[in-house]
Amino acid sequence: MAERTFQGRRAAPGLAQGPLVELPDALDDRIESAATPRQERERLLAAIARAKAELEALAAADAALGAEILEFQIEMLGDELLAEGALAAIAEGSAAAVAWRAALDPQIDAYREAEDEYFAARASDLADLRDRVLLALQGDVVAQDELPAGAILLAMDLTPSRFLALDWQRLAGAALRAGSRDSHVAMLARARGVPLVVGLGPAPEAAGDAILDADEGALITGPEGATRSTYRERLATLRQEAARAAELRHRPAVTAGGEPVMVMVNVDDPAAIDDRTLEDSDGVGLLRTEFLFIGRPRLPGEDEQHAVYRTLLERLGGRPAIIRTLDVGGDKPLPALRLAPESNPFLGLRGLRLCLERPEVFRPQLRALLRAAAAGPLKIMLPMVTVAEELQEARALIADCLAALQRQGMAAALPPLGIMVETPASALAIDTLEADFYSIGSNDLTQYVMAAARDAGGRVAALADPLHPAVLRLIERVIAHGRSTGREVSLCGEMASEPEALERLLGLGLRRFSVAGAALGRVKLEVAEFGRGDG
Length: 535
Description:
eight-stranded mixed β-sheet, Enzyme I, Chain A, domain 2, 3 domains, TIM Barrel
């Protein structure tokens, strides 16, 4: 078989070489004849209950991000509205499996075809629910697939529960013909260090050995001698670097010239990060509080939020925690708020704009943060700040909340208040934004500067370049302002985890970063190499 390269999109970085194996479809194509409507109704309800129990067992075995994702699916299965259409079809004489598929397929297609990448990525979650119930109707036990060690899996897509059921200690990576780099499966792959490429299209077929270059978003089938040799050397180099990174992970980050660099971690959910990772970091540089709000039937209360923030501070043992206030809108809608649809959500009511618009949501979070600040080094960070008036309005609301807490005799403190620099306006006019500290959100800043969505494909994907001079000049402007005013400046986007970008940022004088926990060792290794051999 001649060597061929199929280009997709990187969803989780890494390299893998091994047999390319098609992941078999767990569902069969049998056509069932319907029993009585009553019997079919009972079969469907029993299958839903069984699927829910299987997901609960899978969630119990995964205490981190996977459990959170499955919890969302478990709640969906518990919603009677999900099965309403299928039960109506059964009452008209349809078989349970036919009715269930007919009810969910249009919903899945609608999500998959959505222009909003967030909704498109949720299609696989709904497909996961559909398939698990169908498997329960078949009476089959969902078992671990018998796959060869070191295999690269090829599939149309992967659902979260199937990803979690696979043994990634034995498997090398996955290549998906469809999929999204913003899907839950992509999030799980990045968290577990599993190389993943999505969007390969219909062409690849499983045959023989392959090379998965997830760094470049490529799958190479039938690799020839020269290609094998090149990647063998790259894999060997990566293993050596991984060993060095693992050693440096537990030490403070220092450049080759002896200059200390602060490396903190981004946290999506405190339950999804272990104590060892927190110990290896210089603190939490970004806690995304959306996990408390998204995928839940109700908004979290003040006491619930306070408990989460305080527990994180206790786990950090004196290291700081920068907590970002609620950042929804754009690619993160919040059904509980019932927001009016927008033609371009990324340029609409999102981040701080939304919180100021809905103080009944913002006040409980601010009160919880002020209470938690009395227990440790907490900092509040506001997302999507564009003009000084927004920052001033937020300060006034915080002062009002603090005064109310003090009148109630509740322990509270006023922590430093910083902003995310993620719009061209905030970067260009940084001198007008009197925050206590600044954190550059390179993901959003890049997409707004370059007018290119970070989840775009094809020609537009090439434009979403954080190393473009326009982006770097704005970053440099913020760093210079921080230096001249004595204010801390950090960067918490994916840019800090890319070796070439990190080197450029260090060269611009940035000395504070916040990265994914899995990238801690790798970033510290890059920091240690900075300046080596410069004479």
